[in-house]
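My hope is that you will study the record closing this message with an eye to the fold:
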Amino acid sequence: MSPPAAAAVAAAAAAAAAGGGGGQPQRQQQQGGFGQSITGIIRIAVFWYFASKFFSPKKPVDPSNLISNLFQKGEPLDMWLYLSEHQRFNDFGNEASLVWHETNIPYATWGPESTRTLSLDYHPSDTLKNNGSLYAHVFFARSGYPPDPNDPEYQPQAAFGRTHPVVKYLPKSRSDKRKSLLGNSKDGEVFEPEPQVADDTEADSKDEGPVEWISYWKPNITINLVEDFTRYAHNAVPPNIAPYLNIDPSQGNYYPTISFNEFWLLRDKLIAINETVTVLPLNLEVGPISMMKWQLFMQIDQSFQIHRSYGSMVEGEADELKRVFLEGNPYLLVITMVVSLLHSVFDFLAFKNDIQFWNKNKSMEGLSAKSVVVSFLCQLIVFLYLLDNETSWMILASSGIGCCIEFWKIGKAMHIEVDRTGKIPMLRFRDRDSYASNKTKEYDDIAMKYLSYVLFLLVAGFSIYSLMYERHKSWYSWVLSSLTSCVYMFGFIMMCPQLFINYKLKSVAHLPWRQMTYKFLNTIIDDLFAFVIKMPTLHRLSVFRDDLIFLIYLYQRWVYPVDKKRINEFGFGGEDEQTPSDTGITTAKEDEKKTN
């Protein structure tokens, strides 16, 4: 059934799980892309609507060359709804095909009499159970006039109708290539794939053979009569309306537009039809819809298709976004839309300040160099995992750029040299003097030593669990999915060495606080998304792990007073009093730090 119009401004969220141990990483990506998808979709839909409304070419038109609606506002209409297995219908005398009849429905008015509903059970035929088709034929006519063209009282300008399929065909998911690598799958264990929307790349893949299609029942049929009394110029109807306009060939005017509204019909509500199905539920509704709301629905659906064609949205994300607006609190959703915009701003500022910090940083004193290396390895693991699971190119490009940036940061934290002594050139990493010549390296080694014990135990335990109880395409996929899942579940542990260094040095002045503040704000926004987006309870609780680390950082900033003589993140003292004779010495030391 059609929800309120206010929810129509919906627009993101989650890539389908790739399987095996990869469900957790895919759900994590869902949070990151929610704000970008929702703003992009709404922006495209609104821009498209107003562009077609205000910027369409306007030329002087002869009033005699205008077409108008054949029906008047508030005019009473009778409605007939027939169900037939044939796409063309003319058997009006078959009472068994008539499932719904209503009289005196006021056209394009809102009130108790304007909306009618009916719920019934439909018993499918044997043909329908075997991938057969079924169509809903709806007819409207002025009260007192019949819809049957063979009736003596029939008038062509008094009746109109439209046909709509009640059955939707979706490609059956291909045989799952994943298997138990230990060969201990339970006999008779069946993994039922979820229905998917046809995709060109999937349907045309040559190495998989032909695609098997399955019929699904639409349990809800919403019939809307569009409130449109615009006088259009002949042969100049707006292109977004022309395909839906039903023109009377004798007079040139148009009938009221019938719209079958499936905007809120989610994919998981579809019912698979097979030989075991005996009864199918069918909920019918007829009512008016405003011109603006109807066009907004169409533009949002078209924006979904545009995002899918560019790879910025995968199948299923549109339904997840609609579900958020259907099941979420309206006030919370408005807040979420606002903070999603802030999320994009904070994400950009955090990225900008992170690059700025490492570009200008002249000293590694107080900073964990090993955490930078581990961060690059984690980013590389995620990139390889996404590549193995055939993720959209936009996500791959974003992850690949992140890998390059993390490797660049290694070059700022350590000396990278090319060793050409052997047959194959190798990269060698050497600690900078500002890192190795003080207690920072010692504390970093101690923290990483004990944390690595904990991390290795967690990775080994989870990998064994994944190997025993989950299925994978290959041993390579098992390694990648296990490591990627550990990165998302236990990756926050790698932030702990910096906490240990801060504790030992009793200072936090060396940290990039501006960048960390933006990241902390983004983490709070992710916490809000965790309550809005549908996800398991354990995963919802896991998003608060980073909050704990950031709170400890804030506690350290409060406990350890600011040492104005300590070198800050840009290699300078906070309030060093310099005499003219010391200026040259200080400048020389700063230049020396640039090379260390």
Remarks:
- The mean pLDDT is 76.
- The CA atoms of residues 24 and 485 lie 6 Å apart.
